[in-house]
Write a structure and sequence with these properties.
Helix content: 40-55%
Low-confidence stretches: none
Mean pLDDT: 91
Strand order of the largest sheet: 1-2
Length: 148
């Protein structure tokens, strides 16, 4: 299984835990369908499909030049990160407003957007905040990396 698929499944597991098992409905009156949770978690990084390309470069090891693979970016649709995923998904299915905002703002405050805009979106759309936390939980705790 590829890294993007594994990451998306990890985000799904974390989001299910956040939205269902942490008593969000009982404590805060927040409830989302299983379908909305799955859509947001599994499609939040759709913009990364076919985004990276493997190339090679020469590296000298023990006095010998050797070709080694590395990843480059091949962005054929330069439309941002979260908004690109929303755009791609929207070509195949209709997203609810909450799903669209969750995918759009899943990067939270680590993106380049105005902090006031991000904060307002996370406040208005609890699924967005949950997805943001689930994405970080998957990247930092479950996968132990910061490049997702």
């Amino acid at each position: 299984m590829g890294g993007l698929c594994r990451h998306s499944l990890n985000v799904y597991d974390a989001l299910v835990d956040i939205m269902n098992r942490r008593r969000m409905k009982e404590t805060y009156g927040i409830h989302y369908s299983d379908e909305s949770i799955a859509i947001a978690a599994l499609l939040h990084d759709l913009c990364k499909v076919n985004f990276y390309r493997v190339e090679s470069r020469n590296v000298r090891r023990n006095g010998v030049w050797e070709a080694v693979p590395y990843y480059t970016i091949d962005d054929s649709l330069p439309y941002g990160h979260g908004e690109k995923s929303v755009y791609i998904v929207s070509g195949f299915m209709k997203l609810t407003r909450d799903e669209a905002f969750a995918i759009r703002y899943h990067m939270g405050f680590s993106g380049t957007e105005d902090n006031n805009t991000v904060g307002k979106a996370l406040e208005m759309f609890p699924l967005a905040f949950g997805l943001c936390v689930a994405d970080m939980e998957a990247a930092y705790f479950m996968e132990g990396t910061t490049d997702n």
